[in-house]
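Protein entry
_____________
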Amino acid sequence: MKKISIITVCWNSAKTIANAIQSVVNQNYSNIEYIIIDGGSTDDTLDIIHQYRSVVTKLHSGPDKGIYDAMNKGLRIATGDYVGILNSDDVYADYDILTKVVEKMETEKTDSVYGDLVYVAEHNPQQITRYWKAGNFNSNNFRQGWMIPHPTFFVRREIYQKYGMFNPSFRIAGDYELTLRFLYRYRISASYLPEVLVVMRTGGASNQSLHNRIKANVEDKRAWLVNQIPAPVHTRFFKPIRKIPQLFRYPKRVNFFPV
């Protein structure tokens, strides 16, 4: 049975970390390596993690240089055939998500798998606020502002070894740069799993304020530059516009992991 490594990066995440851990360790896929990278939390985060220490495969706590540096720490110690990254305030949408991901990767012999994501209200995880239906993969859609919901992105570990990890010089859009590099620059294969894989609470770094959204848009442009890819001028403007329908097109029903 193939091993899948799941990496959770956290810092002062006492309010949500237990839900994230539970959604991983209660998956019905048995060969999971669960890695938690803590940035040196000063709240109760570490105390909560230690309550689950018997099911957390690897735990590292200490200062880092930002979220992408922390993710890279997890990638360096991961040993799974496949790797997924689950944020500390996210959960998998059901108990069989990892089973479906591995089956998809094995059946289609693909380099990566991704799916849909829903945002929910921070204090009411049953209230959907946005539905990110990713759609079928076409690398050229990047030019029209498309991107993958990164928490649903599962990749063969060998792809990170071949094409690199997250670029820690990015503060907000490092996930966009990585997916652009993997999927557009190096054209790795990707398969779409057409269902909600991850439930995300609102309040992510790139969406916390207009200021951060502007910073992310600037970093989006730099993502193309560092990969030496000419980007159409309209790409940066289409990217936020593509999000507007996500605010109104909710799925009729989603099986949520209890949070």
User: Anything to note?
Assistant: The mean pLDDT is 89. The domain at 4-247 is CATH 3.90.550.10 (Spore Coat Polysaccharide Biosynthesis Protein SpsA; Chain A). The two ends are 29 Å apart (CA to CA).
